[in-house]
Specification:
Blueprint lengths: L1 H5 L2 H44 L1 H8 L6 E2 L1 E2 L4 E2 L10 H4 L4 H15 L14 E4 L7 E5 L8 E5 L2 E3 L4 H6 L8 H12 L5 E6 L2 E6 L2 E4 L11 H16 L4 E3 L29 H7 L7 H6 L18 E3 L5 E7 L4 H14 L5 E8 L9 H7 L5 E5 L5 H12 L4 E5 L3 E3 L4 H10 L3 E10 L6 E4 L3 E6 L3 E6 L2 H6 L8 E2 L8 E4 H6 L13 H11 L3 E13 L12 H16 L4 H6 L17 H9 L5 H7 L11 E7 L4 E6 L2 E5 L10 E3 L5 E3 L2 E6 L2 E6 L9 E2 L11 E2 L6 E6 L4 E6 L9 E6 L3
Helix pairs in contact: 2-3, 17-18
This protein binds uridine-diphosphate-N-acetylgalactosamine and manganese (II) ion.
């Protein structure tokens, strides 16, 4: 009864207000807790991601997955989101009907009397006698289509119906010819069949098991052991090349032996693990963090689809390109992928341009990479192996490789790649044009699971996001249109991926090579990218140059020290040397803990800073404005006046103390900024708490009592909350004295709400 009395009349209203306030307060406390949790959860997640290695973070979560166009060779189409890329396989295995026509002309020339090689007046066609190319013809009757009847695949080339004239000259013409051509192929494939006379469409093509076609260097295919090919080129074409004229990019693809079209993974097709080998294949995954079992089954010199944009095979390069040393650094690389990498360079590079291949063994632990590798590589006079006595990490290993190189241009590659047809000349052409151009091939994807060769989208450039995370992003259509770009034009890149690029050797040393203080792995791509751009160079992706790379989910080698610590230390070195004040953005993205140099030793930076001065490199602001204007990189999070909602006055710092005054944008004493590292800064002084007082003192990023959490959303929106207090403490304006105090946070108190004139981020 008594209780009811209280709930009568105006008391009822009061009681209701009281209960509502209590509930409101409870909600607030819960929300506050949640917002703290948010912050710490966010940090925890970052930490976790770092512990897991940055890769997942970089590639998947941040939308940096390599933009793939998977090619399904069987179906003959590219499949991407609902078959948007309906390109036929003929586009992939592109060698042009014209080129093939010439191959046949050459064959005829040869068989009409040419012996070792034959040159005609306006081009240097070459034929040499080796193993049979025709052995590799396969005929595939096309199902469900009577008129098209069949396709022929010749050394990785699909002959399609739009290439009628070519087909007339070659193997297959129509359905009714199937029998005939099957006989032909059978005849050719018969073991020990050294001589065959084949009659196709009244064109007599004699084929010998010892015959190989070497196409004129401006066009296509060079087949035969690379050393022999090298001799040939040295003897015939170097003369031409030194004359300084132009020629079409050479599409070389040399093999030591005929390629078995049925071999696993041939033509870059996906390979499959047989049922009874699944356990083994799973067991061996860890050796390289990709399908090592399948890699070992795939020929080390397999053919891969020529994925270059159409215009590439027609584009011209200079005859007098500089030579290059190709440098592979590796530690505990899988045998078959290392070999495939080396073979792809030997087989698809014009021999006169390939000065040498340098293998830098970064102190591998695997036995097969010692004597067995020496023996294997001894068959190639161009391959040299350098053994590092101590594990140096890829950065210093690259420097060691560069020091040993004798070519004019250094070409760095990862040790699990496959260089595609015509990959080298387009790179060297750009360096020839300007020795400060640093050029990268398009990095295509060798699938880690089935080892298939996969295309990537066109018009991708290398970029980074905070905190210096590399990724790819497509050029906008607007940009492409404005610059009238075709898919074979070089693409300027703010940063490079890091693994595959060519650089003029002298220029590399002018730039001070890499910062040798960078350890093991990571961050060196940022370092060299900033250095190149800010010190007068350029970075380009060259779409006519394509190299496949196995992207792995994890590093298959050990880090001498902690992986996360190694990478973040490298990044901090880069940020300190190159980012000027923008380094704060880097640190603010989960790397606050690196700021205190007494805890994290990032090493001595004097030489790097001196180098930047010596080279008179431009500022990071210049880089942002000119190279990467689309990056969101405001120097501070917010600035201008700090308006207090409750007093409707602005914070002012004058005569050494903080107070309030009528807001006046023209009054410099009212100008503050809220930095990435959570400081409330006025010139070099910052708002700090001392017990419950608020003072100004010299800014210091590592002092927690200068850190203010200021959010544009959430519960304590517009508050300035002190970081690191057990009880949430906020800045509050004192109405009577125009002073400023530290008080317990109150979400609805407008005296604790502050607004900056400009906000630059969320
Ligand atoms: C990418 C780059 C890689 C490098 C790295 C960041 C591509 C395709 N790859 O990571 O070249 O820039 O980002 O640093 O752009 N290695 C050594 N010693 C070591 C560690 C690695 O020699 O201590 C070798 C390793 O065997 C490999 C190469 O360095 O050939 C690159 O290493 P990765 O393949 O693990 O790097 P990746 O592709 O994940
Ligand atoms: Mn790699």
């Amino acid at each position: 009864m008594k209780f009811r009395k209280y709930l009568r009349g105006s008391r009822r209203v009061l009681a209701f207000v009281f209960v509502a306030s209590v509930i409101w307060l409870l909600f607030d406390i819960a929300a506050l807790r949640m917002s703290f949790n948010d912050v710490s959860q966010d940090l925890k997640e970052r930490e976790f991601a770092q512990k897991q290695g940055r890769r997942k973070d970089d590639i998947e979560d941040m939308g940096f997955k390599h933009p793939l166009q998977p090619v399904n060779v069987d179906k003959g189409t590219f499949i991407k989101k609902g078959n948007r890329f309906d390109r036929k396989v003929k586009d992939v295995y592109r060698r042009g009907a014209k080129a093939r026509q010439e191959t046949n002309d050459l064959a005829r020339n040869h068989l009409n009397g040419g012996k070792a090689y034959k040159e005609d007046s306006n081009r240097s066609n070459v034929l040499i006698t080796m193993k049979s190319v025709v052995k590799e013809i396969i005929i595939i009757p096309e199902k469900n289509n009577e008129t098209k009847t069949m396709k022929a695949k010749m050394i990785g080339t699909h002959l399609d119906d739009d290439e009628e004239h070519h087909r007339n000259n070659t193997v297959v013409k129509s359905h009714k010819d199937v029998g005939k051509h099957e006989n032909l192929v059978n005849k050719l494939l018969k073991p020990g069949n050294d001589e065959s006379d084949i009659n196709i469409d009244s064109t007599e093509i004699h084929s010998s098991n010892k015959t190989h076609f070497i196409q004129k260097p401006t066009e296509l295919i060079l087949r035969g052991p690379s050393e022999e090919a090298a001799m040939l080129f040295n003897s015939t074409d170097v003369r031409m090349r030194r004359s300084g004229r132009l020629h079409k990019i050479m599409a070389l693809d040399v093999t030591d032996r005929p390629r078995d079209p049925k071999a696993i993974g041939q033509f870059g097709q996906p390979a499959k693990v047989p049922r009874d080998k699944e356990v083994e294949s799973r067991r061996r995954w860890g050796e390289g963090h990709f399908n090592v079992f399948l890699s070992d089954q795939i020929p080390v010199d397999r053919a891969i689809p020529d994925t270059r944009p159409h215009l590439c095979s027609e584009s011209l390069v200079h005859d007098d390109l500089p030579t290059t040393s190709v440098i592979f650094c590796f530690v505990d690389e899988v045998w078959s992928t290392l070999l495939r990498s080396v073979h792809s360079v030997l087989n698809r590079s014009p021999p006169h341009l390939l000065k040498e291949v340098i293998l830098v063994d970064d102190c591998s632990t695997k036995d097969y990479l010692k004597e067995q590798l020496d023996v294997y590589m001894s068959q190639f006079s161009k391959v040299r192996i350098i053994r590092l006595k101590e594990r140096q990490g890829l950065i210093r290993a690259r420097i060691a490789g560069a020091d040993a190189a004798t070519g004019e241009v250094l070409t760095f590659l990862d040790s699990h790649v496959e260089c595609n047809i015509g990959w080298l000349e387009p790179l060297l052409e750009r360096v020839r044009l300007d020795h400060r151009k640093v050029v990268c091939p398009v990095i295509e994807v060798i699938n880690d699971k089935d080892m298939s060769y996969m295309l990537v989208d066109n018009f991708q450039r290398g970029i980074f996001r905070w905190p210096l995370v590399f990724g790819w992003s497509a050029l906008t259509e607007e940009y492409i249109k404005k610059n009238q770009m075709t898919d074979s034009d070089p693409i300027r890149c703010p940063v490079m991926a890091g693994g595959l690029f060519s650089i003029d050797k002298k220029y590399f040393y002018e730039l001070g090579s890499y910062d040798p203080g960078l350890d093991v792995w990571g961050g060196e791509n940022m370092e060299i990218s900033f250095k190149i751009w800010m010190c007068g160079g350029e970075i380009e992706i060259i779409p006519c140059s394509r190299v496949g790379h196995i992207f792995r989910g994890d590093n298959p080698y050990k880090f001498p020290k902690d992986r996360v610590k190694t990478v973040e230390r490298n990044l901090a070195r880069v940020a300190e040397v190159w980012l000027d004040d923008y380094k704060e953005i880097f640190y603010s993205h989960g790397y606050h803990h690196l700021l205190d140099k007494s805890i994290t030793d990032i090493g001595n930076l004097t030489e790097q800073i001196q180098l930047r001065e010596k080279l008179k490199c431009k500022s990071f602001k210049w880089y942002l404005d000119n190279v990467y204007p689309d990056l969101n990189a405001p120097l501070v999070k917010a600035d201008g006046l700090i308006f207090n909602v409750g007093t409707r006055k602005c914070l002012i710092f004058q005569n050494g103390s903080l107070s309030f005054d009528k807001c006046d944008l023209s009054n410099k004493s009212q100008h503050f900024s809220y930095t990435w590292l959570m400081l409330l800064r006025h010139n070099t002084s910052c708002v700090a708490s001392r017990e419950m007082h608020v003072i100004m003192e010299p800014c210091d990023n590592i002092k927690p009592h200068q850190h203010w959490v200021h959010k544009s959303g959430g519960v304590l929106v517009e508050h300035l909350m002190m970081e690191g207090h057990s009880q949430p403490m906020c800045l509050e304006a004192e109405v009577n004295s125009d002073g400023i105090l530290l008080k317990g946070c109150d979400p609805i108190n407008t005296l604790q709400k502050w607004q900056f004139t400009h906000y630059y981020t969320q």
